[in-house]
Amino acid sequence: MLHEYSTRKEREEAWRMMAEGRNEEAKEMRHRNSTLKTNDTPDWDTINWAEVDDTRDLAKIVLSRVIEKLYVVRIQEPTVLVGVEEDVIWIQRKLMRARVEPEYSPEELMDVAYDFEDMIDDLMLRSPAKQRRIGNWERCLLIIRIHKKLILIKSKIPALPCLPIAIGACANHDNYFEERVWSDIFLIHDRSVANTIVSPVEQKVSALLAQEVIHPHTKKKVMRVLDKFRSLNDFLTGLQSVELDACGMVWMEELSHLALSAVTAIEDFINKKEQFTKSRMRPSRGFLFAFGKLKSEDKLSVEMDKMYAKIQNLSMHRPIEFSRQSQSRDTESTVRISPQPTTQEPKLASFNDDVHAMVKRLLTDDKSFRVIPIMGMEGIGKTTLAKLIFNNKDVLNHFPFGVWTSDGYEFHLRDKEKLMDSNLGQLGDVWNYHVELQRLKAFLIDKRSLIVLDDTHIPFLDHDDFDYSQISLPPNFRTRSDPHLLRLRGDEESWALFTHALKNSIPPELLKLKDKIVRRCGGLPLLIVKLAEAVSHKDATIEEWSTVLQQFHHDQQQLWSNTLYKIHEDLSLYMRRCLFYFTLFPKDFDIPARRLMALWVAEDLVQPEGENETPEDVAERCLNMLIAQGMVQVTKKKLNGNVKMMRLPDVLRQYWLSKAQQATFLGIHTDTRSELSLGTSRIRRLVDHLDKEDVSFDHIHGDYNTTSTSLPSYYEDVLSFMSFDTRKESKPGEDVRNFLRQSISSGCFLVLLVLDLENVFRPKLPEAIGKLSRLRYLGLRSTFLEILPSSISKLQNVQTLDMKHTSINTVPESIWKLQQLRHLYLSESYRSKLMLGQGTNFPTILQTLCGLFLDEETPVRDGLDRLLNIRKLGLTMSSKQQAMSFQLQAVVDWVLKLNQLQSLRLKSIDQNNQPWDLELKPLVSLVNLSYIYLLGRLRNPSVMSQFPYSLIDLTLSASGLVEDPMQSLDKLPNLRSLKLLAKSYLGKNMLCSFGGFPQLRVLKLWKLEQLEEWNVEKGALQALRDLEIRFCRSLKILPAELLHRTLLKIEVIPAQ
C-alpha cells in the first residue's frame, strides 16, 4: 500500500493522471497525503530509481520462477497441498498481482518469494515417494514447519513496504505489466558467454541444495545471487559477436571473475561441510560439528551478501550502448582487402592431408559428399587446393569432364581425352551468360563431371538430373553442406612451401633464418609465397633477407586484418576469452594442447552441455574450432593426427595481447588499470616471463624483502600463477618457494585456481601451499621436483595434478584425499609408486591415471579396480615374476571394466628392466578405446585379432609375435598409426593384402631383425603418408607397390 496515497482508489487515480501526462496533479495529490507518510517510507528525492528498476526486473524473474514451480507441483504432486491448498492459492494470487504492480519494494517482494519457494520445497517432502523414507515424528515436524512458514508469509504480504510512484518514470510504466514468457525462464541457452558465466553458478547451487538442508536464510541469499546472474542472461546473450570497447571488456572480465568467486565460495562451503560430516562420526565431536557447520554457513552467508552487492553494482553499470554498437560496428578500423594473385603454385606436399581427404570424399558413392565447400580465411589456399584436386590423376580418372567457373561469367572446361583447358565462354552481358548456361547444361547432362564453383552459382545444378560432384568456394563460413576446413600450415609445411616458391637453392648460412621466416608468416600460404617472391629479388645474404623480413611486417598486417574482421563477425565472446589465454605464454612459444585445455577447464572458461560430456570434451572442440577458422596455428601433431603443439601467429598474438590487457584479463602491474576497472586494480593472472621491467620481477626474484602489507595490493585476487623461469640452476626453485611462502603468509593467492610451474627446475613448494584451498590445477611437469609437501592433501579442489617427469618415487596415500581429482600424472621414468592402505577412499571421478608403477604389494583387486571412470590409463608393472602373476590378471580384469577407456598404456618389465610377460584379454568390448601402447611379451597373441574397431593408434614393443600381425590388424577400419618396435614381430615374412589398412597414414618398423621379405599388394595401404624403417638388418628390398607413391614420405635408416 503506497503511503503517499491513502486509498487504493487514490493510487489508481494517480496512475491515470500520470498516464494522461498530468504529472503535476499527481504530485499534488501525493503532497496532500504526505501526512500519512511513515518513517519507513523512502524519501522521493533520495531513491535511486535506476537501481530500483534493476532490482524490480530481478524480482519479476524470481516471482515467475516461483509461481511456475508451484504450477508444476500442482500438476505433478497435487496431494502435497492437502490441508494447505487454500493458503497456498491465496499467496500465489497475491504474488502474481504484486508481480505486475510497480508499487511494492522489490527487495522485500523477493524476500517473500524466496520464503514461498522454501515452503514449496518443504511441500515436496510430503510426496508419497519421500514420505516412505521418513518416520512419523519427522512427518509431524514437517507439517508444523510448513504451517509456521505459511503464517509468516501471510503476515509479510500485507506489510510489504511500498515505493512512491516515480513521476519521471511513468512513461515506462507499461513495461511493468508486460508478462514474461514462461519458456524464456527455463530456456536452455546455446553455449555462449552467458552459459559459461551463469551455468557454473547454477551447477554449484544445485549441488549445494542437493546437500543436507541448509538454513532458509542462507539458502535465500544463495538463490538471490543466482537469480541476479540469471537476470543478466539476455543481456549477455546479446553480446555475442560484438566487438567490445575497453570498458566493455573490463566489465565482462569483472563479471566472469565474480561468477568464479561465487562458484569457489560454494565449493569451499560444500567441502567444509563434508569434512564436518566425517568428523561427526567420531566420539565427542557432536558439538564441534554443530559449531563448525554454523560458522561455515555464516561465512557463506556473508560472502553471498558481498557478491550480491558487487553484481548489483555491475548490473547498474553495465554498458548501455552494446545494442547500438552491435548494429553499427565500426568496420573502418579493420580494412578488408582482396588477396593479390601470385605466379607461384604451392608445392603439393604442403597440402598432402587436404588433397587426400578431399579426393577420398569425391570418389565415394555417398551422395552426402556430392557438394563439398572448401572454407577458410583469405589467403589460406582454397583456390590452390581446388586446382590440385581438379587436376589430380585419380579425380581425372573418375570424372572425365570438369568445369571451373569463376567471377560468374567465365567457364573453363577440362576434357580428360584431350587434356585441355579451353574457354567455353567469356561473356560480356547477362543474356549471353544464360545462353552459355544452356549450352553447358546440354553438354553435361550425360557426362560424369566435376564442377568447381569459385564464389558463383549454376542454377541447373540444384536438380538431380546430372551425374556430378561439386567443389564450392563460398565467400563466408555459412553453408548447409559439411565443409572441408583449411587450417594454417605447420612449420615444416610452411618451409616446404617457401622453398618451392623461392625456386632457388638456399645457402647453408641462410638456413638459420628458417624459424624466423616460418614464424613471421604464421602458416598462411599466401604470405609464405609473397615472402618467397620478395626475397627472390634480393641478394642471398643474411642482411638482405633480414631487411625484407622487417619490411614484410606491413603486408602481413594487411592480410591478417581480414582474419580479425572474421573474428569480430563470427567468434563468440566466450571463445575470445579462450583466445586471451594464448597471450599468457611467451612469444613464439609452442603451447602444448593438453596444457592449454587443462587451464581453460580450471578457470571454467568452457562448460559441458550434457551429462555425458566433460569440460575436457568441450575444450578440445573449442580448440579445434579455433584451428579450423585459421586463428590458431598447429605446429606439431601426434602420429594419430591429434594436435600436440600450437601457437598464435605473431600478428594475432599482438592483437589479442592488447585486447586482453584492455579487458584486464591479464592484470596490469600499474595503477593505470584503475581507469578502466570497476573496482580493483589488482592482478588477476600473474605470469613470470623473467622480464625485469615487470614489477612482479622484483617480488619474485628481487634481493630485497617486500613488506607483507604491500603484497596484497598486487596479488590478493590472483586466479593463476604461471612461471616460465626455465634456468637450469637452483635459484628458480628457491625464488618460487620464497615468493609463495611470503605471499601466502600475507593473505595472497587464497583464491588461486592455477599454479603452473612446468619446466621450472626443482621448485621447492612451501608447506603453506595447503592454504590454497581453491586450487584446481597444479602443474609440476618436467620440474624434477623431489618431494611433495605434506600439506598437499589439503588441496581439496584440485582437479589436475601433473607430476610427470619429476623425481618423486613415492606419492603419499594422503593424495587420495583430493576427492575432486580428475587427472593424475605420475613420473613413469622415475617409477612413481602410490602408497595405498586398506579401505582407501579413492576419488571416483578420476579420469586420468598415468605413470603409475605397480608391484606385488599394490592393491589392484578391491583397490584400484574401484576406479571405473578412467579414460586414460598408463601402468608400469615390475617385480618378482612369480608374485606378479596374480597382479597381471587383476590389472586385465580391471581394464575390461573401464567402459569409458580411450587410452591404454601397459608396460611389463622384470627386475632388470627388461621386457617381461604381459597378460591381456580381448579388448573388443571397449568401444571408446582409440590408443594402445603395449610393451612386453604377449601371453595370448590371439588378442591381435580382437582389438576394437575404434582403435586409431597402436604401438607394440617386445611382443614376441611369431605370426604376421598384418593379417589381423589390416581389418581395423580406423587405424591411422602403427608402430612395430624392437622384437614385436619375430617372423621372416610380412604381407599387406589388397584393401588392407584403409586409413593407415603412419607406419614405423623398428629393429625387426628377422624380417626378410615384405610384400604389399596393390590397393593396400592407400592412405599411407609416412613410412619409417629403422635397423631392420635382414630387409633388403622395399615393396615395389610403395616406391611410386607421390604422396608417400619414405625414410630408411640401415642397421649399423
UniProtKB/TrEMBL annotation:
Domain NB-ARC: 353-456
Family matches, as InterPro entries: Apaf_helical, Disease_R_plants, LRR_dom_sf, LRR_R13L4/SHOC2-like, NB-ARC, P-loop_NTPase, WH-like_DNA-bd_sf, WHD_DRP
Pfam families the UniProt entry points to: LRR_14 (PF23598), NB-ARC (PF00931), WHD_DRP (PF23559)
GO biological process: defense response to other organism
Tagged with keyword Glycoprotein: no
Biased composition range(s): Polar residues: 334-345
Keyword hit for Repeat: yes
Coiled-coil region: none
Region (Disordered): 321-345
Limits of the Disease resistance R13L4/SHOC-2-like LRR domain: 745-1031
The Disease resistance protein winged helix domain, residue ranges: 584-652
GO MF, any single term: ADP binding
Keywords for the protein's UniProt record, in alphabetical order: Plant defense, Repeat
Name assigned to this protein: NB-ARC domain-containing protein
Organism listed in the record: Vitis rotundifolia (Muscadine grape)
